[in-house]
Every structure is written in C-alpha cells, then in structure tokens.
C-alpha cells in the first residue's frame, strides 16, 4: 500500500482520537485554558468572543443567536444525539437489554441523582438559588471513563460497564429534568411542528429508510429548529431524533460473509488493470462490497461511530472553552462560602457517592442485584466518587438554571472544585484496589 505524505502527519491525530481515554484529557486541558484566559489580562476578549452573533436568514425569517447560544443550543444537541444513540444501542443489544444486568447501575444512577438534589435543596430551600437543584445530579461520562481507562487492569471490565451504564442512565435522567423543569414559554405551535417532524423520522424508520441524510435533514433542519423555537430545549430534540434511528442490520452475519467472500473472489478473477485507476468491472465489484458492508451495519452504530470523535474532540472541548471560564472573584472566600457553591460542591462530592453506594448496597443486600465479576466494594466506592465528576452536564444545566451571572459563577466554582476533588479521590481509591485478571 502506498503511503501519501499527509498520512505521516495524520497518524498522530488518528491515534489520539482512537484512544477514547484521551477525550477526558483534552476536555480537562481546554477547561484549564478557559480558566486561565478568563482570569488573565485578556479576560475581556474571552467574554466578548462568545457575544458575536451568527444568523440564518431566509427572506424576512431570521434565526439569530450569539456564539454562546449556538454552542449550547446547537452543537450540544449533537452531544445529546450521541447520548440518545448510545442509550438506544444499550437498550437494543447492550447492557440495558437484560433488566437483571441493568437494574443495579440504573437504580444506583437514580440514587446518585436524588441525593445530590436533596442536599442542594437543603442548603437552598427557597429563592432564586433554589433553581440550581438539577446542577449536581449529572455525571461526566468522558472524564469518568477516561480515568477508568488510565487505571488499566486496576478497574475490572464489569466496573467499567457499571460506570458507563450508570452515566448513560444519568444522562437520560438529566435530559428528562431539562425537558420537564428547565423549559419555559412553550410555543405549542412549534411543539406541534417538531412532533410532526418526529413522526416523519419514525415513519422513515418503519419504511426501512437507512440513509443518514434523511434523518439529518428532518432531524436537524426540521425537528431541532422547531424545538429551538418552541421553548423546549433543543437538546431534547437530539435524544428523540436518535431514538428514531434504525438499530437493525439488513444483512445477517452469515449472509454478509457469503456475499463478501463471493465479491472478493469475483474481484480476484477480474483482469488486472495495471493502471493507477480501476476498470468499470472492478469499480462495480467494489461498490457491491460497499453496499453489502453498509447493509451489514446498523445505521445507529454507523452514525455513533462517526459522530463520537466529532463530539468528543470538537463539540465538548468547544463547550468547555465557552462555559468553564470562571472568573475568580476578589472575595474568593465569600464565593466559596456561598450556598450555591456549597450546595453544588457537596451535592457532587458527597451526594453522588452516598446516593450510588446507598442504593447499590440496599439492592445487593436485598438480593435484587449483585456486583459484577471481580468487583469489590472498594471498586464501587472509587466508581461512586468518579461519578461526582459533573463537569459537562452540570455546566450545561447551570446555564439553564440561572440567569444571574453571580449565581452562575458560584455554581461553576462548585462544579470545577468538586469535579477535580472527586476525580482525584476516585482515581486514588481505585489505584489501590487489587489488580483484576479480567
């Protein structure tokens, strides 16, 4: 195989993207850049950057938002779309397909959402600060899974499955919270238009439409735009669109092997061209191989595979850059003692582990569930601490919960401090756990 000069430059980036644990590292570095920038002599340029507006115009119809809104309402819809794809894959043929396997992480995820919210409400029972109760409920899957990957065989496979399933269930819970509690000024007309586009997506699935373009045009151009204008947060459209994507193959494994073997033999028997280009017959055979391979994949997994690097290495870092820039107040002690900072911090650092471990212990004690192979309670404590890394989703809900900039800054401070401490403690606990053979 001939290697082009560009391959030599592309290889390091390809290797970086293939290793999913690197996504958490990139996210952390971007968050650090945002923090430094927001507290540097050039901090005004940081805040001003996100105020630039971008508009989509058609005759007199205009959809105009600043960069901050386009990232949070637009690009983050891709993140939630990916969450929806992962959720459906797990339900159809993954860890959520068998209720017995899913009951422990899903129940633990619910406990890890309720307890942090109660801690926050206990410290912020009324007034405008009360609206932040949803902030400490979330787990950042990129950071949590990235730290688990760095631990190697210190983290059993069953523990990785547990924390991944818990984080996905957690994300679904966060989406429901956003849809039900952080939505205002509903336009029923636009909701109806969005619902009509959703029906078109479902109808396309039932008809057997497998083209990603069909779902992209109707899902983004139609449903996402309608939801954006309806008052229901547009990220909800991402999850709903994902659930409408087909999750079945057109060719089973045996038929695929038969067809591919036939086409490869057919290609081998063709007369070689001995030219840089291919003959018409060779092209025809390669197209047959491409069609067979496409039909052997599910559209859902094909989209998930292609979107994951875009979301992990472009969308989430951009979101972190736009939202993690916490300008440290002059009175740092006063900010740290604020009820929002403490509520968010304790919710993530204390509420998350208590909720997850408490529900897990109860379900195991009652015999409703059991720990996975090679998983000990020390592993569970480490995983519960890692779930206290709220970051992406917590920052996202913070933007919806508060309009007051001071309250947003307090919440961001709590999120960042709690996430760093939770990640460090979880890593330390798991680092000292017995080595798993699996």
Report on this structure.
This protein has 438 residues and is mostly helical. It folds into two domains: 21-75 and 82-91 and 98-181 and 308-431, Na+/H+ antiporter like domain (Na+/H+ antiporter like fold, Up-down Bundle); 253-295, no CATH class. The chain is 72% helix and 3% strand. The chain has 18 helices and two strands. Strands 1-2 form a two-stranded antiparallel ribbon. A hairpin with a 2-residue loop joins β1 and β2 (61-66). The longest helix is centred in the N-terminal third of the chain and has 27 residues, at 67-93. The two termini are 36 Å apart.
How many individual β-strands? 2
Tally of helical runs:
18
Structural class category: mainly alpha
Number of domains: 2
Distance between the termini: 36 Å
CATH class (first level) name of the largest domain: Mainly Alpha
The coarse silhouette is globular
Q: Helix-strand pattern, N to C?
A: HHHEEHHHHHHHHHHHHHHH
Strand order of the largest sheet: 1-2
Which blocks of ≥5 consecutive residues have pLDDT under 50? none
- State Rg: 24 Å
CATH superfamily of the largest domain: Na+/H+ antiporter like domain
Largest sheet properties: 2 strands, antiparallel
The CATH topology assignment of the largest domain is: Na+/H+ antiporter like fold
Mean pLDDT: 83
| Strand percent estimate | under 5%
What is the name of the CATH architecture of the largest domain? Answer: Up-down Bundle
- Assign a percent range to the helix content: over 70%
Summarize the structure in short.
This protein is an all-alpha fold and 438 residues long. The chain is built from 18 helices and 2 strands. The longest helix is centred in the first third of the chain and has 27 residues.
